[in-house]
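SEQUENCE-TO-STRUCTURE ENTRY
===========================
Question of interest: how does this chain fold, as expressed in C-alpha cells?
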Amino acid sequence: MNSRMTAMVRVAVCVCAAAALSTVGLAQSAPAKLTIDTQGAGKPVSPTLYGLMTEEINHSYDGGLYAQLLSNHTFRSNWEGVESWGLVRHGDAKAEAKMDKSTGPSDALPTSLKLTVTSASKGDDAGVSNMGYWGIPVHARTIYKGSFYAKTDGVGPVTARLISDDTGAVLAETTIAVDGDAWKEYDYTLKVGAATASAKNHLELMVAKPGSLWLQLATLFPPTYNDRPNGLRVDLMEKMAAMHPHFVRLPGGNYLEGDEMKDWYNFKETIGPLVDRPGHQAPWSYWSTDGLGLLEFLEWTEDLHVEPVLAVYAGYALKHDYAKPGKDLEPYVQAALDEVEYATGDVSTKWGAERAKDGHPAPFPLHYIEIGNEDWFDKSGSYDARFAQFAVALRKKYPQYKLIATTPVKEKQGAEPDVIDDHYYKSPAEMFDLVHQYDDAPRTGPKVFVGEWATRSGSPTPNMGDALGDAAWMTSLERNSDLIVMASYAPLLVNVNPGAMQWPTDLIGYDAEKSYGSPSYYAQVMFGAAIGSSSPHTEMEGAHERFFYSVTKDEKNLYVKLVNASNKPEPLAVELKGLGAGAHVAKTTSLHAASFEATNSITEPETIHPVSGTARFTGTKLERTLAPFTIEVVEVPLR
C-alpha cells in the first residue's frame, strides 16, 4: 500500500482548466485522436455492470448503515463491565448496575443489565446512560423512536432523556410506565424541538424510586430511509442511490464466513423479532448484533430498486477450518436452500411463509447465487467438491439461477460455474497497469464478476490518485462488459471516528452526524449515471500512456468516459463517425484535482466534486483538452 498522502485542491470545470493552460504546455504534443463509430451495433454492455458490496467492517452496519443509535444495545459484557453503558447517580442517589446472567427476555438474549437502586427520588434519580457510536446525532424538530425490554420489582416509571454533552441541556424527555416482574417490551418517543445539529449527545434511562430494574435490547432510531421500522440511515442510502447501482452483494465477504465455523452467517438467527436474534462474532474484531439481518438486507435492495446477489456460506472459515464434502457439508447445503427459499419462495413454502410472518409476503427477485467467499484462501483443495455439492443441490431445486464460484473450479464434477468472482486491491500505479487484464481474455466458459475491487492509497477514504485508478479500471470494465457481468467496489463504508476503522481505503466516510463522498465515490456516481447498452467500435491514436477511455451508447446518447491520470494536459480530437452534420450540444461532467494526494474528508467533504458543463460543436468533430488529473464524462445526443 502506498504511503498516506494529504493535500488540498480546488475543483475546476475541465474546459476551464484547459483554457487556463499555457500555449507552451499545449504545444508539447499533438492532439490524440479518438474515432468512434456512432452507428455500429458494437459489443453488448451488461445491464447489471455496476453494483454495491458491503460487509460488517469499519462499523459499516452497527454504527453505520443500520440506523439504530445505541452502542451495545444488547448489553454484552466483558471483563471491564457492560461496554458503552454507564451508571448515572444524580444528587444523593445510591445505585449499582451489574450484569445478571440468570434472566433475560428470550433464549437468544438470556442475560440482562440489573440496576439496583437503594436511594432515589425526584431530582436525585439513578439510571444508566449510553453514548451511542461515538455520539448520538440530534437534529432540530426530529422525532426519535426508542424501545427496551424490562422487568421490575416495583421501581416505578422510567424516564428517557436525550442530553447535550456540552451543555447538559435536556433536548427531549418522556416517561414510560414500567411495571411487573415479567419481561415486556416498552416503546417510547422523544421529540426534539429547537436544537443545534450535533452528535455530542447521550441517552439516559432513569428511575426515581428505590428498587430493581432489569434491562435488555434497548434501541433508539432516528427517521429511517423510506420510514422503515428497524431501518437504515437516510444519508448513506441516498449516497448509494446516487451511484445508480443494479445489485447489492450480500451479506458480505469475510462476514459470510467468520473466523471460525461457529461464527458463520446463519441467516436463521438474523430474522424475526430482534429479541430472537442472538448476534454473532464478526471477523473484523467486534460483535455484530444482527439487527440488520437478512430481511433488512433484502429490503435494502428493494428500497434501492436493485436485486440481491445472494452469497451462501460454503463451509469454510477464515482460520482455515472447513466442512468436508459429503455428510459434513450437508447441513450447510440445506441452509443455503432454505435461505434462497426465504428470499424467493412464495407463502406456501416453509421459509416463504416465515418471510411473510416477518412482514414481507412478496418474494424478492434473484438471478445470482454466490457459493462462498474468496475460497482461494482454502489450501485444503476442498472447494471444487464443496462447490459441486452446493451446485448440484441448488440447480436441482432452483435451475433458473446463475451460480457464482469464488475461485476457478478445476474438477467440475458435473458442476460448471456460470460466473467466477475475481477480486483486485491495487495501488494507483498497479491499477493503471491492470486495465488490459480482460482485453484478450477468452469469451468462452464462465462470465466474470469483479466482486471486490479498489485502488488503495488514501485513508480512511480514497484520494484523487485512487479515483483516477478506479476510473481507469472502470473504463476496462466497460470495454469488457460482454465478459464482465457485474462489478462492485469494496469496502463501501467506513466510520471515520478513531478506533472504528479496520481497513482503508473505503468509498464513503461518515461519523454519527454526517457523511461524505470520496473522489472515488464521485467517479462511481459519474460512471454509473452514464452508461449505455452497447460498446461501439473505437480507435485511439497518440494518447499519453496514462490516458484511459471507454465509450458506450444507447438509442439516445453516446457516453464517452475520459481519464487523464498524467501530470500533463491531454488535447483530444474526437471523430464521431455517423453523427449528423449540424450543431450539437454535449453535456460534460468533470472531476479534477491538482494532485494525486488531494482528497475529501469529514470536515472538508466537497473539496473535490463533480462539475457540470456543456461542449458545443458542429459536425462530427468534438475537441477537448483534459487537464492533468481529470476524469470526465461527455454525453453526446445521437438524435
Summary: The two ends are 46 Å apart (CA to CA). The chain is about 15% helix and 35% strand.
